[in-house]
Amino acid sequence: MLNPDLPITKSDEDRLNRSDFAKSLANAILKRTSSSSFTIGLYGKWGSGKSSLLNMVLENIENDDKSVVVLRFNPWLCTDSKQLISQFIKQLATAIELKIPNGDRVWEIIARYADLFDAAGAIPYVGSLVSAAGNILGREANAQVSARSEGLQKRPAMKSQV
User: Fold this and answer.
1) What is the DSSP string of 79-101?
2) The model's pTM
3) pLDDT at 51
4) What residues contact residue 148 under an 8 Å CB cut-off, 6+ apart?
5) Cα(25)–Cα(42) distance, rounded to whole angstroms?
6) At what angle do helices 127-153 and 106-122 cross, to 10 degrees?
7) Which of 75, 105, 122, 125 sits most deeply, having the most CB atoms within 10 A of its CB?
8) pLDDT: is 4 or 35 the higher one?
9) At 124, is the pLDDT very low, low, confident or very high (cuts 50, 70, 90)?
């Protein structure tokens, strides 16, 4: 029987004993206290288990801290940079909407911002309009995100968000 080239999705499917490393990496991410951004690179040959490891890391993060917003975004599905930005922002808004109560407007603001990128791609010469509108929405979104962030930081033993 042929073995499909599909990544595992859960740690209990791990037959290569990588789940301990995935748990350690997830814990290191969750225990980060710096507010600066960071990047983690997984390098390996095709089929070496990068996607499987990523799935296990994300599984651990989601299980250990329910407040973390995980966005699985595939840029290869986008045809150009405008679509990439628009789709990323829309998916981010959806992911945030699932975690933040409906009364909070952060996700609505982000979704409106994504719609501006769609409009900019469809109509010539609206880049400056989108930029100006983006600045206005950006200020509103920053205020909403800051207020939400302050509330999260006041929770006891709150970990830095990834």
Assistant:
1) SSHHHHHHHHHHHHHHHHHHHS-
2) 0.62
3) 95
4) 100, 104, 106
5) 12
6) 160
7) 105
8) 35
9) very low
